[in-house]
Design a protein that fits this description.
- By secondary structure, the protein is an alpha/beta fold.
- The strands form four sheets. A seven-stranded parallel β-sheet has the order 6-5-4-9-12-14-15, sandwiched between helices. A three-stranded antiparallel β-sheet has the order 1-3-2. The protein has a three-stranded antiparallel β-sheet with strand order 10-11-13, covered by helices on one side.
- It is built from ten helices and 15 strands.
- It has two domains: 59 residues, Winged helix-like DNA-binding domain superfamily/Winged helix DNA-binding domain (Arc Repressor Mutant, subunit A, Orthogonal Bundle); 182 residues, Rossmann fold.
């Protein structure tokens, strides 16, 4: 296999190899299946171990697939990263100067911020409960940042709490809310696994003029616990070319515009 252009794609491939080996493989066998240097492989494995995605033990690698681990921010950054980057770029093109926007703490909105920085728009204000997004844009003089604060969930990288939900509800307003989710059902709506984070996102949606869901096509085939927004509150879905026509037609029938990111 040729060495992948992006490190996150390379590490995603490593995880796939371990997964196909029933969740465990020797480092020696893994090295024989990836066309990268030994130093690069050990660097990638160190990063994956620090992120809690793999466990190293006596020359073997074990995939860490606990239920909690499935919602890890760093793992989500690597899943379908190319699609998410395209979706983020498409969404960033919809922001205009002097706008205030809500952002959730998803990996897709993180990629959205990468694209937004390149546009150099004037006087943008971001309000977010993400702990990672402020670090991404803190050096951008043209973008103001408001973090809502609260108890930090270290796994998914967001803050939440009843006091901060009330603060947002009573004091903030945005032109647009860009958000993603763990899964999306054409029958139920948007679903997420962490109720406190879902509650904060529901408040963002309530106080936004336009709600835009950034969701790669794989998420239409997943399911999760908490439905925090229905389609009558969602104005637009931005997805990738993997979304099938039946899903698009169902979303359109519910009044949701669907944009395909290229």
């Amino acid at each position: 296999m040729p060495e992948l252009e992006f490190p996150e794609d390379r590490r995603s491939r490593i995880l796939e190899i371990i997964k196909k080996s029933n969740g465990r493989i020797s480092i020696k066998d893994l090295f024989s299946q990836v066309n990268i240097s030994q130093s690069a492989l050990y660097k990638d494995l160190g990063i994956l171990e620090n992120q809690g995605q793999v466990i190293k033990s006596y020359g073997k690698l074990i995939l860490n697939e606990s239920e909690e681990k499935k919602h890890n921010f760093f793992l989500n950054m690597q899943k379908n990263s190319r699609q998410k980057k395209a979706i983020g770029k498409c969404a960033a093109s919809m922001v205009t100067e002097n706008e205030t926007i809500f952002l959730d703490g998803s990996s897709t909105t993180f990629y959205f911020c990468e694209a937004l920085k390149k546009r150099n728009l004037k006087n943008i204000t971001i309000i977010t409960n993400s702990v990672f997004i402020p670090r991404e844009i803190i050096m951008e003089d043209n973008i103001n940042i408001i973090t809502v604060g609260g108890m930090v969930n270290k796994l998914i990288g967001t803050s939440d709490g009843d006091i901060w939900e009330t603060l947002v509800k009573n004091n903030f307003y945005a032109n647009k809310f860009f958000f993603s989710c763990y899964s999306i059902s054409t029958d139920v709506g948007v679903l997420d696994p962490v109720q406190t984070d879902a509650n904060m996102k529901a408040v963002f949606a309530l106080k936004s003029q336009k709600n835009i869901c950034l969701v790669d096509s794989s998420k239409f085939y997943l399911y999760s616990a908490f439905n925090w927004i229905s389609f009558d509150q969602i104005d637009m879905v931005i997805s990738d070319a993997g979304i099938n026509k039946e899903i698009i037609d169902k979303l359109n029938s519910k009044g949701v515009e669907v944009i395909i990111a290229r």
